[in-house]
Specification:
Layout lengths: L1 E11 L2 E6 L10 E2 L2 E3 L6 H13 L2 E14 L4 E13 L9 E6 L13 H9 L5
Parallel strand pairs: 1-6
Antiparallel strand pairs: 1-2, 1-4, 2-3, 2-7, 5-6
Length: 131
């Protein structure tokens, strides 16, 4: 069974928000973009809004799909849909992660990301995908 996951690319001053998973989570202390599983009956944008409100305390006003692909982990397959968050209300605060950081896109490859995010990071850092 494939799990659908949404993730938001949130920018501030040309830096991208990245989040570190908690030590007690699956894939402990790996980095990821904020977001999560799409619930039954939810559309992608609704799921993104819910997840970013829960994780960061922000209200997504507008976002557009930027990239998607499917990644197979040893125990599950994940359909990942990445959105560029264009506007949001509120201030970003860490509600669920071990830590959060704002990084220049060029520094993403130096961080220990989840495998499912690596194709997006490759496209962002090589210039194949611009935001």
């Amino acid at each position: 069974m494939t799990i659908r996951v949404v993730a938001g690319l949130v920018y501030q001053d040309r830096r991208l928000l990245v989040c570190q998973r908690r030590a007690d989570a699956s894939y402990p202390l790996k980095w990821e973009f904020p977001g999560g599983k799409v619930e039954e009956g939810e559309n992608l944008l609704t799921a993104l809004r819910r997840e970013l409100k829960e994780e960061l305390g922000i209200e997504v006003e507008s976002a557009s799909e930027l990239f998607h692909h499917t990644h197979s982990y040893p125990n599950q397959t994940v359909e990942l849909v990445f959105f560029k968050v264009e506007t949001y209300r509120g201030s970003v605060s860490n509600k669920q992660f071990e830590s959060i950081e704002w990084l220049d896109v060029g520094k993403l490859k130096a961080v220990d990301f989840l495998e499912g995010d690596l194709l997006l990071i490759e496209k962002l850092t090589s210039g194949d995908l611009s935001v």
